[in-house]
Amino acid sequence: MKRRLTSLAMLTALVVAAPAMAGSAAPIRGAKYLSMAHVTLAAARATALKTRPGKITDQELEKEKGGSGLRYSFDIKSGGKGYEVGVDAKTGAVLENSADGPHPD
Question: What digits encode the pLDDT tens for the residues 51-97?
């Protein structure tokens, strides 16, 4: 009986944790550049959310001018508004933290 309860508890924990684990493995546009990044996607997401608390709705790794030339770009919904937060993929520095304009890309 004790063994069944332990198994049931483990199964329940997996069911509860699965959605959270799946959310952290969301696809990222520009994944081909991940091997060039020194900062992990998870660390960049944490930096972006610390800079602009909210919900990440889109994420991309792109080559772009500024910083090291490789950056994570996150679209974040916060307080009903959209923001873009850019994190340097080599240094972890915040490169952008701006409100979306009337025509966000």
Answer: 999 999 999 999 998 899 999 999 999 999 999 999 999 999 999 99
Distance from the first to the final alpha carbon of the chain:
57
**Phi-psi label, residue 12: left if phi above 0, alpha if psi -120 to 50, beta otherwise:** alpha
Instruction: Say whether pTM exceeds 0.70.
Output: yes
93 lies in which domain range? 27-99
The CATH number of whichever domain residue 45 belongs to comes to: 3.10.450.40
Alpha carbon distance 98, 105 (integer Å):
13
Beta bridge partners of 72: 61, 87
Q: How many domains does the chain have?
A: 1
